């Protein structure tokens, strides 16, 4: 009788513990977005320019995927496919980013723009693009967002209206 009681307790223990183990939340690993791997051609970390002095930083497919998600959540209403709906003459193409004053062709300059948006000629603040304070996006998040925009400008087919780079 004692053996049977121990066996029943053992089975009940398994029935209680097993579902808890199987249904416990698992850590979610950041996955690379298929757009990033296919169109931005990123499977291994890629170097992107940080500043005008030519310093670079490696951005992984996961970093760029996080940047893409932030872009979709916060920028897509005005910047579909790298276009700029409020001012269609200025896109997010590499040529347009390089032609801005100051140029927005590296991570730090694009982050500076996002933190304090200025008109294309740099003469005054603009309200077409929302200011992104650190209380809204951390430095890492805004750098991932900037990296996505720059890599898309470099590689994505059809990104921006005058993007001819491949």
Automatic annotation (TrEMBL):
<dbReference type="InterPro" id="IPR029490">
    <property type="entry name" value="Cytochrom_C550"/>
</dbReference>
<dbReference type="InterPro" id="IPR036909">
    <property type="entry name" value="Cyt_c-like_dom_sf"/>
</dbReference>
<dbReference type="InterPro" id="IPR016003">
    <property type="entry name" value="PsbV_cyt_c550-like"/>
</dbReference>
<keyword id="KW-0249">Electron transport</keyword>
<dbReference type="Pfam" id="PF14495">
    <property type="entry name" value="Cytochrom_C550"/>
</dbReference>
<keyword id="KW-0813">Transport</keyword>
<keyword id="KW-0604">Photosystem II</keyword>
<keyword id="KW-0479">Metal-binding</keyword>
<keyword id="KW-0472">Membrane</keyword>
<keyword id="KW-0349">Heme</keyword>
<keyword id="KW-0408">Iron</keyword>
<protein>
    <submittedName>
        <fullName>Photosystem II cytochrome PsbV2</fullName>
    </submittedName>
</protein>
<keyword id="KW-0602">Photosynthesis</keyword>
<comment type="similarity">
    <text>Belongs to the cytochrome c family. PsbV subfamily.</text>
</comment>
<feature type="domain" description="Cytochrome c">
    <location>
        <begin position="62"/>
        <end position="153"/>
    </location>
</feature>
<dbReference type="InterPro" id="IPR009056">
    <property type="entry name" value="Cyt_c-like_dom"/>
</dbReference>
